[in-house]
User: What shape does this take?
Amino acid sequence: MKKINLFTWFADRQVTYLPTHFIKCNADVTDESKKWVYEHTNGRFYIDETYSLFQDDTNIYFEDSQEAMLYELKWS
Assistant: This one.
């Protein structure tokens, strides 16, 4: 039986502002990758969704560099 990390389930992991120490990932952000972040990471993250007339851009930032690297390896 897999142990449940209570911090993962009960903490607000997705922050509403971008702290300066978060690490930006260049891989694309999709609904599937957002679900993967919730299921396979434990730290805090920020998703920046910018919509304009000329481009739609979504970026994800992680507090933990190891989680940022895992995301890049999985979704690049």
